[in-house]
Amino acid sequence: MYHRLSNPLKTNSFFLFGARGTGKSTLLSHLFDNKEALYIDLLDPDYLIPLQANPAELNSILAANKKPWCIIDEVQKVPELLDVIHSQIEKKKIKFALTGSSARKLKRDSANMLGGRAFLYKLFPLTHVELGKDFVLDEVLNFGSLAKITEYKTVIEKNKFLRSYVETYLKEEVLIEQLIRNLPPFRRFLEISAANDTEIINYSNIAKDVRSDPKNISNYYSILEDTLLGFFLEPFHHSIRKRQKKSPKFYWFDTGVRRALAGTLDLPVTPKSFEYGSLFESFIVNEIYRLLTYSEKSFQLSFIRVDDNLEIDLILERPGQPTFLIEIKSTSTVNVNHVGALENYHKDIKNSIPIVLSRDKISKKIGSVNCLHWQNGFKEMGLDLQ
Question: What are the structural domains of the chain?
Fold first, then answer.
């Protein structure tokens, strides 16, 4: 198992949320041993059926297995359990580790979120830091970095896993959990949203392609965010009001899943292609988002788009620190043509540092712009969590 950057404290009950396949169960199996924790898997019918019928049955199970911790996998399948868990935390002082793919179903069913009695952690696909010596950029761009994908060695196996993952997610997460009642438009939406990963969302155009309406498209994107399958990147502006008037971008959480949904797995990704550049941008933005989330420090990510010729891919703001203006280029040779937007804009944003992140291994400065290999750039921004 790879050492994970998500490190739940064992001094308090907690939720661990993450998309399917990110390694939640594996992480907990290494955090707890059988002597200290009772493990309840709600994917197992032997637990699921009786607890759905009578959530209070959990009290009897805990009484028969006197252990200080109880792990409940996929807790969103029986939201009513949280009332029982709340009581056990208060009266019996048992601690709980609760996993799920998101809090959306829990909140929708007005579930008891334990009122601050449980900490919240998230788990993402593996970062380059976690993969360590096994990290290969082109492998991650082609197949993503879900924990399970690392178990497969051949292209055929990896592609089969990713296609199965997509179908399993649609079946288990969307249909069984009843997040979507009309599945065909959502299927079409998934394909289109994956193909438009890293692009500014045009709700009206996607609605036409899906044969739905913009409100449904907005709801679909919210479901993706709530189930940790991606996140919104809002446009930069010091005025929140003006920020809200512009459309965001959306970044899928994993490049392999994105490719499976977009139907491009059969086409190997090669440098200098449009898809390679888009996947490299998606990888860098996701990697920064994951590392910042794991660091548990306040941050704000956004982008600037003036027109087709003037865009800054990522703005990183943190309280009391310089603002990083980041251009992401998949090239292995950065030149003056790659720094125009940063040169034009960084003087207008106080205390800002312009950086180009690329595959170029030679660090250089072009005008006022620092041009760094992406891993060196992460260190410059304080994102080296090793």
Answer: 14-122 (3.40.50.300), 128-276 (1.10.10), 297-380 (3.40.1350)
